[in-house]
Amino acid sequence: MMLKQRLVRGEPIQLGDREIVPEARWTWVMTRRATFGRQHQSARGWMAVHVQPTAVIEHNPTHTRRIPIHNRTHQLLWGFIAGALALPFLMELAVRLARPKCE
Predict the structure, then answer these.
(1) Looking at the 3D structure of the chain, how many domains does it have?
(2) pTM (2 decimals)?
(3) 3-state helix, strand, coil in the chain (%, to 5)
(4) 38-96 pLDDT tens trace
């Protein structure tokens, strides 16, 4: 399996005396497999690409600044996944604590 990640910058956009440059993180995963035998040959593979905006860079005559982009939806979805994974364990713990002890 091959995993690569790269920070890329887009085409600059001129806005008056300012120049805006978008920045994104480009991640891709690829796997390949080939089998050669006496009777048959086979090959397979897959690839996935994910591009996530990370910042906007503003250049003007007096200064240059990088304005980060925070993906709140991404953070919220990871929170939901963590909650969904933790919920069965918490429910099992609640049931065990509520059950009367047999002596």
Answers:
(1) 1
(2) 0.60
(3) 25, 50, 20
(4) 888 888 899 999 999 999 999 999 999 999 998 888 889 999 999 999 999 999 999 98
Q: Which secondary-structure segment (H or E) carries 79?
A: helix 72-98
Within a domain: residue 100? Answer: no
Contact 82, 74 (CB under 8 A): no
Structural domain containing residue 31? 2-70
Query: What is the rounded CA–CA span in Å between residue 63 and residue 8?
Result: 21
Q: How far out from the chain centre does Cα 26 lie?
A: 9
- What is the rounded distance in angstroms from the CA atom of residue 18 to the CA atom of residue 92? 58
Strands 64-68, 18-36: pairing is: unpaired
* DSSP at 64: E
